[in-house]
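Worked problem 6 (solution included).
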Amino acid sequence: MNELFALIDRLQDFLWTYVVLAMLAGCSLYFTCRLRFVQFRRMGEMCRLLFSSTTAAEGGKKHVNSFQAFAISLASRVGTGNLAGVASAIAVGGPGAVFWMWMMALFAAATAFMEATLAQLYKRRGEDSFYGGPAYYMQHGLHRRWMGILFGLGIIASFGIANQMMQSRTICDAVDAQFGVGSVAVAAVLTLLVTGVIFGGIHRISRFSAVVVPVMAVGYLVLSVYILIANIQHVPAMLTLIVRSAFGLEPAVGGVVGVAVMQGVKRGLFSNEAGEGSAPHAAATASISHPVKQGLLQSMGVFADTLVICTCTAFVILLSGLYANGEDGSILTGSAMEHHLGSFGRWYLTLIVFLFAFSTIVANYFYGESNIRFITRRKWPIQLFRLVSLLTVFVGGVVTLQQAWSFVDLFMAFIVILNLAAIIQLAPHAYRLMGDYFRQRADGRDPVFHRSMLPEIEADIECWDEASAERVHDN
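Solution. The predicted structure is:
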């Protein structure tokens, strides 16, 4: 078994060092320039869309609205990557990893815009809601079903298995550290709770996410801001430490420059998922009048995740001074909280870890199910996947944290490579959609898209006939 994990470590390290890092950085910078820095210039439009979302209906049926789709994707983004992931990045890569996590988010938001817009363009119409994602734009946009199947299998392995183990392991560590409850018991209770949600379908998932995610994110943000204000005199020195460590100007604490960059990018991607191809599954479910609306909202989701919530965790850890004590994951974050707030801090963090990880498990299951539906129309594989996903949640309570990270990094590299390769080829469609959207906004209209606007790919677009676009617009 040790030989297997050693092989996985070598493979994922090779992919990240020589392939994934170059692709992520290159695409993020190129899309940012090609989209004329849309993630920075259009922040006001993102806020307008977020707060103007209403429940959409078509043909008398309820559909997932724009805010609910945003909440589902944020549920996956806001998880243990914001707590255990940030802590691991700092423990291994030092304070400088935080700087590279910020850089990753600022530019990768453009990649998030691209993948979400394409997911909306090529989404399909289901019985209860729309559905889609990278596998669908690989098949209907690139006409490469084999590529979509490979990506779908990667998502199932990454989010349906490896990621679920990571979330479960983090919950078990947090509860055991606070209450001394055995991992097996915690994993069993967690599995029962997840069962009640995932068997309710996408609408139960969307309602759960729309309620829980904002509450837990705001609560964690308020507590972190309190800690920041209480230690305001130490903030300038902390920021200086982050920047100097990012470029190797401080004595190595946890890593050197190369390790800091790699940890910042890896854990930044694990948290905000920009370019990974997971969030587009949620973006595709929204019933909206123009694909660009979800592109803008998903860009905002990257900022909310990394620049706000991940930064809160990083500041709490660095201000505690405990980042070099040999602890990792949620245990390090818990120690930092306890340093600032006493026993209440660790207790509160345990609750936050549970909510963050639980909501992510639910969203991850949805991503896996979406790709099973792409691969086959039979219903029994979905039922089997539900059982496997639940079993994986339980097994997560008995594996080690590093074993879980090894699987996550390997499958994450695989799906990133496939997704970015598809986005690069389909990019011209996203550019044209963005131009159309802002031309309509300049004319004072709420933008509406229908497939006749892109006649060269009209046959591959299922959900954007003119009549349905106008119905969504009217709602």
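Discussion: Confidence is low (pLDDT under 50) at residues 54-60.
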